[in-house]
Amino acid sequence: MSISLDFAWIEAVLLASVRMVAFLVIAPPFSYGAIPVRIKGMLGVALALAVSPRLTPGYESFATADFLIALVAEILIGAVLGFLVMLVFAAVQSAGNLIDMFGGFQMAQGFDPQSMINGAQFSRLFHMTALALLFASGGYQLIFGGLVRTFSALPLGGMIDFTAPAEAMTHGVTQMFLASVQIAGPLLVVLFLADAGLGLLSRVAPALNAFALGFPLKIFLTLTLVTVTFVALPQVVSSLTNDAFEQMMGVR
To answer: Which family is annotated (predicted)?
Structure first.
């Protein structure tokens, strides 16, 4: 009995799985530390097998040296795409960081080894909420769809042009800060007005020591009004998912 192996198909699946795994290790929601690396690897191989019918037709095998170069190129492509998605969803974490800073929670920050975040309560809470919404709303499926479509824009074995990713990262950083301010904007305005009111009160009645009352007042306002931001988070995550899809499609 003889078994014939299609080495071109094996190479195509291997290259596709390498791009998939590099993407899953960096991009949310799959980059969360509670998901084992073995599961990420198995998921990457499964996705590569699922998309293999559209990748293998017309694929030609590489020589050994060229195959190693293509392997490194696929790792870079997956890492760049994953970083672009991570950059988009970092806006939610940044919004929580702003709330921690203006609300007085920043002094109680700690490191979360699961999400690899060094922040206070709302930074980690917003990050976990965004991940939960991605799974609950099916947004991860849109991210998967964008990743699969990148094989049409960036075929297997092709080298990425780093001009477009650099421009996308520059634009993404700007949009991240803008989105974080927009998400936390209403609460930040209230906290700023509270600081201004306490400043005026300390000028009118210096003996009252208004700033001693500032910490519990700002904490109370933050815990009371943060629900306004949470109500808007599903729409925010949906919009960020579309932005992440467009970022991946913009890489050539």
So the answer is: Belongs to the FliR/MopE/SpaR family.
